[in-house]
Amino acid sequence: MTLLFQPVQFGSLQLNNKIVIAPMCQYSATEQGEITYWHEQQWANYALSGAGLCIVEATAVQPEGRISYADLGLWNDQQASLIKDLLQKVKSLSPMPFAIQLAHAGRKASTDKPWEGNGQIAPDQPLGWQTVSASDLPFQSHEHPPKALSLDEIQQVIQGFASSAKRAVEAGFDLIELHAAHGYLLHQFMSPLSNQREDEYGGSLENRIRLTLEVFKAIKAAVPEGYPIGVRISATDWMEGVESWDVESSVFLSQQLEALGAAYIHVSSGGLHAAQKIDVHPNYQVPFAEAIKKVVNIPVIAVGLITEALQAEGILQYEQADAIALARTIQYDPRWPWHAAAELGETIEISPQYLRCQPHGLRNLFKPYS
User: Fold this and answer.
1) pLDDT for position 1
2) At a CB cut-off of 8 Å and minimum separation 6, what does 9 contact?
3) What band does 318 get if pLDDT is binned at 50, 70 and 90?
4) What single-letter DSSP state applies at residue 56?
5) What angle do CA 185, 258, 252 make, to 5 degrees?
């Protein structure tokens, strides 16, 4: 019996299998941060995939926290109402739980869509705005510098996460993932490369992770008791020869998050500095997940160039992680869980409308949702 198709527990939420659809920005919301028909078909596609969990894209908790003007938001009730209506539709297709990743882009905000150039839009240009960060250091030297957040503004950010979390629960999401990775605001506070503050949010490692821990606690206080909250982190900045965020820092942070009640740690990497040098290859981030798994008792999710069923199964068999997240892989092959089940000789639950497409010779591949 394989591990990939066994249940996994994220706090109070049990998944039918260990396949997680990782959050992927779609850059397809309205300028008001509201969902469009693109999200309707995309989320429905996720619901029918056979994965154990879908985490929808990074969703901004403040208008200035969007990566681009086309990012999804959850800073007002209208956005939440539209999402609630859509979730009710997609949940009628399958029992797969849906999660949302709450985020603030910080200095990496105010950009164009990737296929339109992906560059920063200056605050005095249409569709642009003034970005914020831990310090006034831009992501790239030619960009308009961010404004360093004041202590009062930091509290507003924390409240933004808490308010958005409350809306996420009311909208019907089964889990919240806090985005503390990929060079966005919380990561900007954590890394000494982007945080040069001299107050209680800068300097020591304990001070630099303070905002992430405070945001987690604020979210926890805003949602029902026992509601699962996971955290996505970048395990390393991929910067050599300088003081930066690294695996040792990530281990310490993960232990603090576990103590606060995190449901899991989702281990990615990079995104903080334009000069990063990432050694990209299959499983390139798995050692980071393994290092964190050794020191925490909550589940750890591995992600990054995991594309094959046997590859994913091997990561679980070697106890390098507890679940596998797929992003671009599942965009390319929306039925990857079906194909993985076929390859590993497993049975997968699907919508009964699809039972007749079961391939000849694989009569035990599909069964209807129980």
Assistant:
1) 80
2) 15, 299
3) very high
4) E
5) 65
The answer, yes or no, to whether residue 140 has pLDDT greater than 90, is yes
Residue 303 · residue 327 · CB < 8 Å: yes
Instruction: Please report whether residue 197 resides in a domain.
Output: yes
Question: How many C-beta atoms lie closer than 10 Å to residue 53's C-beta?
Answer: 27
pLDDT > 90 in the chain, percent: 97
Spatial CA neighbour of 216 closest among 190, 247, 248: 190
Q: How many CB atoms lie within 10 A of CB 351?
A: 15
- Whether the model clears a pTM of 0.90, i.e. scores above it, the answer is yes
- Fill in the amino acid letter for 300: V
- Rounded Cα gap, residues 286 and 306, in angstroms: 9
- Report, as residue numbers or ranges, the catalytic residues: 184
- Does residue 137 fall inside a structural domain? yes
Query: pLDDT digit string (tens) for 193-250?
Result: 999 999 999 999 999 999 999 999 999 999 999 999 999 999 999 999 999 999 999 9
Residue 292 lies in a domain: yes
Which pLDDT belongs to residue 148? 98
What is the phi-psi region of residue 245: left when phi exceeds 0, alpha when psi lies from -120 to 50, beta otherwise?
A: beta
Instruction: Please answer whether residues 59 and 105 qualify as being in contact, where contact means their C-beta atoms are separated by less than 8 angstroms.
Output: no
> Tokens 């299998």 label which residue?
17
Q: What is the number of domains present in the chain?
A: 1
What is the average per-residue pLDDT within 154-158? 98
Closest alpha carbon to 86 in 103, 74, 75: 74
Instruction: Give strand pairing partners of 83.
Output: none
Query: How many whole angstroms separate alpha carbon 305 and alpha carbon 157?
Result: 32
Beta bridge partners of 20: 53, 325
Nearest partner of 299 among 341, 260, 254, judged by Cα: 254
Residue 285 domain flag: yes
Q: Give residue 56's pLDDT.
A: 98
**Can you give the residue range of the structural domain that contains 272?**
8-368
Q: DSSP per residue over 342-359, as a string?
A: HHHT--EEE-GGGGGGPP
The CATH number given to whatever domain includes residue 45 is 3.20.20.70
Do 74 and 60 touch, CB atoms closer than 8 A? Answer: yes
**Which of 254, 263, 313, 253 lies closest to 283 in space, CA to CA?**
313
